[in-house]
Structures are given as structure tokens and as C-alpha cells.
Amino acid sequence: MPPSGGATTVWRHRWQPADDQHRTAYGYQPETVQHSQHITTTLQLGDALLFNPASYHAVESSPDGRRIAFAFFLALTTTGQLITWS
């Protein structure tokens, strides 16, 4: 784990048409989620964070090291079976 940076924030906010007024070249300005509930966490080696990626989220840069992310898709079928794919 890098010695600094890398905190992940997830906001309780999904994209809405009005959000486009805050669009930047890559992502959205902080004003988009400024009044939304959020959680910020810094993960340690071996930790996992499971959240809906449709919610706005951001990861602080890690200037003193590298960060490796592993992503996959997870779903619950109509029969109640939990499936994963990537």
C-alpha cells in the first residue's frame, strides 16, 4: 500500500441529467455531489470494497506509490443465484 493517498469516497448519488452542467473533460466537478451523503475509507492490503459503480466515486491519487485495482461484475439472478463475470 502506498504511504499516502488512495482513499476512496463513494457518494449516495447516481447520475442525473442536471449533473451535466458540472461535467469536466474527465468526470465531474465536486459541486455535483456536495450535498450528498458519502463515505470515505482507506483500504489496507487484502481489503475489498464492494459498491454500486453507478454511484459517483473517486480515489485519491497515491503520489508515493502505486495502486492496483481489481474489478469485476456481480449480479443476483431471478433465481437468487449470485454470479460474477468480468
Q: How many beta-strand runs?
A: 5
The chain-level mean pLDDT equals 90
How does the major sheet shape up? Answer: 3 strands, antiparallel
- Radius of gyration over alpha carbons? 15 Å
Strand order within the widest beta sheet: 2-1-3
* Termini gap: 24 Å
Strand content: 25-35%
Number of helices: 0
What's the number of structural domains? 1
**Backbone structural class:** mainly beta
The helical percent reads: under 10%
Give helix and strand order, one letter per element, not per position.
EEEEE
Shape: flat
Instruction: Report the uncertain regions.
Output: none
What does this entry show, briefly?
The chain contains no helices and five strands. It is mainly β and 86 residues long.
What tags apply to this protein structure?
86 residues; mainly beta; three-stranded antiparallel beta sheet; two-stranded antiparallel ribbon; 5 strands; 0% helix; flat
Q: What this model shows, in words?
A:
The protein is an all-beta fold and 86 residues long. It has one domain (8-85). The protein is built from no helices and five strands. It has strands spanning 8-14, 38-41, 55-59, 73-76, 82-85. A three-stranded antiparallel beta sheet has the order 2-1-3, with no helix packed on it. A hairpin with a 5-residue loop joins strand 4 (73-76) and strand 5 (82-85). The chain is flat and about 40 Å long. The chain starts with 7 loop residues before the first strand and ends with a strand. The model has no long low-confidence stretch (mean pLDDT 90).
